[in-house]
Design brief:
155 residues, mainly alpha, two-stranded antiparallel ribbon, 5 helices, globular
Length: 155
């Protein structure tokens, strides 16, 4: 799990990501959404953010339009796939922290996995959000490979 997050902070982070996906899709700057505590209303806040994100990304033209996000300026398709990867890994973090099973279908993860693999393996000791790659082997479940790529240990 993200060592710097407890479960409540991780839930706040997931809500923030959902809100950022929405504001980016509307053409607003990603930094206009900062992480904040939503108290005990995580499920409702996440549902609202998800609905807003779906509404703000309705136009297929957005898939080739460029957007500024924390990791650069990219076309919409890779932006969305990277956010899918981030959500999946944090879903894994949450499941790991709470002792629950999280096993999304590999087909739903593939775009996120492809996007996460664009993060260079080198230079991860700079205090950034990604730890060193943890080798889990090519036969590990895709979600575990995604988590290990950003520095999580599934052991």
């Amino acid at each position: 799990m993200c060592d710097e997050f407890d479960v409540a902070t991780l839930l706040d982070h997931l809500v923030m990501i959902g809100r950022r996906i929405a504001v980016v899709g509307r053409g607003d700057h990603w930094a206009s959404v900062q992480q904040e505590s939503v108290g005990s209303g995580h499920a409702e806040a996440f549902a609202v953010a998800a609905a807003d994100a779906l509404t703000s990304w309705r136009d297929d033209a957005q898939l080739v339009q460029t957007f500024e996000v924390p990791w650069g300026t990219l076309p919409g398709a890779p932006v969305l796939f990277t956010y899918i990867g981030e959500m999946a890994v944090h879903g894994w973090d949450l499941a790991t922290a709470t002792g629950h099973e999280f096993a999304p279908d590999d087909a739903d993860l593939f775009g996120g996995w492809t996007a996460l693999q664009q993060i260079p393996r080198e230079g991860r000791d700079d205090g950034g959000p990604f730890g060193e790659v943890v080798d889990v082997g090519d036969d590990a479940p895709l979600l575990h490979r995604m988590a290990s790529w950003v520095g999580r240990s599934s052991a």
